[in-house]
Amino acid sequence: MRQITKDILAPPADLISNNCKRQLKKIITSRKGGKATYYHKKKVVEALNNLYINKCGYCESRINVVASENVEHYRPKAGVDEIDLVAGTTHGGYFWLANEWSNLLIACPKCNQPGNKGNRFPLSDPLKRVFKHPSMLASGEIDFKANHYNSIHISGEVPLLLNPEHKNPEKEFVLKRNGELKSNDKSIFAFTTIDVCDLNRVPLTIARQKIIDGIINDINNQIKAWHSSVAPLSEAQFRIQLDYIFEKILQRLADESEYTFVAKMIIKNFETLILDEIEKQFRSVILNQFNSYIKKN
Ligand SMILES: [Zn+2]
Question: What separation in Å is there between the alpha carbon of 75 and the centre of ligand 1?
């Protein structure tokens, strides 16, 4: 997961057009969020893809290579799964947020499929769940500001699902050597998000682990070259080669890279994720070079 900065006061024009307002009025009257169409207009999807750089808001996988992205409703528009509700109650979804800019993100079909995120929306206290659209303005018009995620009418809800636009994921998750995500400081938000979106499914843990393995292999190859019996590298040359490897880690922080979170964790926890896997006698020179590289860059 990567933190996303979205200007909720500047939605794409389609979402505040008169036609969209008319549609929203009908949706509010019929309470049928499934009838919304403006959230997947081409320009809305483009604007979301620009923010999310074609990557899933939950797992950070690049989507458009193999599938179409889903415009995901953070608060589900047409129903909430029973598992997240007070027993014996039903919820028709947050229909009034079906075309709401601050409620839209990009998700991959895997994270968003029924059984994973789908219509899940767990709250820390399900009794505080909001069922109703906020009132209209005195003019009879829709109060769009009341639909914003931080508006007063919905502020009693504490969602347990992390939204990359609301919280910094780096504070919530940590990365294990085997590529699994774990909640940091027992974060209930990270724990729930891993569970709801299945963020430790095997292809994801393999992809994350592969990045860590690649760096360890690169370092081990340079150690071999440094201690080779044929034309060995000098220590100075070895340090230069290490810098190339560290440069590649920094390049992985670029927003458009897949799994920037892994690179962030490698930099933050270099000793446990990388160094512990290297032969002991070489660790101090590598750590020393790593620290001086990071300081410089
Ligand atoms: Zn995903």
Answer: 17
